[in-house]
Protein 1
Amino acid sequence: MNRAILFITKDNINPLSGGIDRITYVLATELRRNGCACFSAYLSQSHPLRIGDAVFDQETELTEDKHDEEVVNLIELHKIDVIIVQGVDALMNKELISLRKVLNTQTREIPLLFVFHQMPGYELVSIDNKFLIDHLFSGLSVKEILLQILLRISKKNVLKSLRNKYIVPYQNADRVILLSRLYIDDFCKIVGNSDTSKYLAIPNMLTFPHSDVIPSKKERIVLMVARMDEQAKRIKRAIEIWSKLPMEFGKDEWRMVIVGNGKDLTYYKNFVKSRDIKNVSFEGQQDPLPYYQAASIFMMTSAFEGWPMTLMEAMQNGCVPIVFDSFKAVYDIIENGKDGIIVPDGNMDAYLNNLVQLMQNAEQRKLMSEACVERSQQFSQERITKMWLKLFENVCKLVANVS
């Protein structure tokens, strides 16, 4: 059955910006291919409006003073069947509460879904003492460091605040969609109960078109694709690992290529320059696809992730990943030793040793590269779209029976 789907996001959708925007855009594209009509409503216009884009039948900015009226108009005009709130922060929680109040006034039951696009408890990562020590002399400003110290002092209040934040989706949404089944228990613990009936895991889908072809010539490139943000991505750790590579293992024949932009880019450049670290290049914001296709190895050293698209994109293009296990979903994505390497979080020596071994062994890289492409197809657009369509069918039946 064809359905009308309304996506609610913080900002207007820009598929080139990555993250929630790109995931929403690709999902809407696939739903349209399966006969659904897709609509977009957003709280603020942060990106230029696109011209001639046929993915969404209508895109609407919701204004604060006429919010409820505008939502009702969208629901009635387009006969909306399902509403999906794409969120992770307090603002989207507020929106979720507003939407629930609006839906409670409707004569027709409409499922309200909330997608949590992060690892549950990611906010606590920055309240870790080791984190403060690691970053005390890095790119953080004095203001940011003082904030971290204050957070440590008020950790109990932060935990209470987290519960208040996480309980909103549980209380207001018909279903809370998490990115991994391994996140369900963590979300429940923060909420403070063991009721898992409202939670469902649907991973992000691949965003590049399907291809079984591995680029024929992989270069000796170790790649990072990330936002230049030390607090979240810990790129300094990757650079430090690279700097410790023994010269006899062919570092002169290899290059480290870092793609992305962000507030800490200048800090990383100065770090590399001041220590005379060789063969590191910063490419800035670029289309990452040619880099994935050329690179042999992909590094990820993040402090936390939800379901990292860059990791999926690298594997889809046969770029073998080495990743810290700083987020549980990594075990859904990588089969350790077969299509990637998972390193205990913070174990820099183990990370370095695995990187050296992979750089030395061309045959291992080739086998793992092939396995990466095969593994990535578990998260193909076709498979993940079917999971969403099944969810729509089940939740529409659920609310119909309740009414």
Note: Residues 381-402 form the longest helix (22 residues).
Protein 2
Amino acid sequence: MLYKEDSLEEWREKIIQSRHGFYPICGEDADDIVGVLNIKKFFRAECESIEDAIAKAAEKPYFVPENMKADVLFTNMKESRTYFAVVVDEYGGTSGVITIHDLLELLVGDMGDKEDVKVEEIVNVGENEWNILGSASLEKVTEALGVEFDTEECDTFGGYIFGLLGEVPDDGTGLEIVTETDDLVIKTESVVDHHIESTLVTVKERVADEDDDEDEDDDDEDKKKKKKLKDKDDDESESED
């Protein structure tokens, strides 16, 4: 469950660690469900606050009594196109949550251990800023950011960061690392069980380098002009001789 009193960073950390597709949002306590956060919408929206996240990515709670039969609930949820329901007891308190996937397993058997909704590993959260999970492949990060990684020793973004550090950071560590090529600023937001969970990545603008390249081109052009003038003077001198 997520709580309105928490920060966006606390929400992101909890979502990344548990990786569910929907989360009940609590007001004063667990019995005060004010909405259900849709994780796909949450990561696609540029949320600036908890209130903003609720407005952009939360859905109205679908409450059901705990004594409702599974087949009836399944039919109701299917007809209303509802994926996630909050189960309440006879006193109005929260008893639990259930998804239509859970109901399918109850009615037809085990559906396997696939996650209900896959959390996106690479999400653009602002101009030149990305949330990237440590599990994201370097190939996909390269495609998204347009940055090449000079390494053949790892396959994931988290492994690449470990290579830069030369060590495995302690759980909960927050770090800021500039890559060897100075293309990125990588801030590690979460380290869990000795692997990197989430990062905030900023793609650095290359304005200075572009100016340097233009200056180099100008210098090369000047050198070519001077060489042509010198060659012309040499030819004239030979003619006079």
Note: The longest strand covers residues 184-192.
Protein 3
Amino acid sequence: MKAVYKVIDNQGRIVIPKEIRDKLHINQGDIVEIKIEKEKIKIEKLDITQLNNDSIESFINTMIASAKKMDRESLLRIMGRLFENFKDIEFKEGNHE
């Protein structure tokens, strides 16, 4: 594949070209790890099993990544079960987006 050149926007973002995303099976909602190795930026798609973080954000990302792999009927069934199990629970106040 030929080199691709991108301009970083004023918020430090770049767009990964569709050709690269398609080749590496990177889709909207996928989780990527960004790190520096040998003075170079490395971006790698992660499988949800690679996430070891106990944070709420990590849990939410894992759930979203898992849900993306389900058919609509299965996802709706799980959402219904979650609602039934938690409808009577009083939750703590907090920022749980």
Note: The chain has a mean pLDDT of 83.
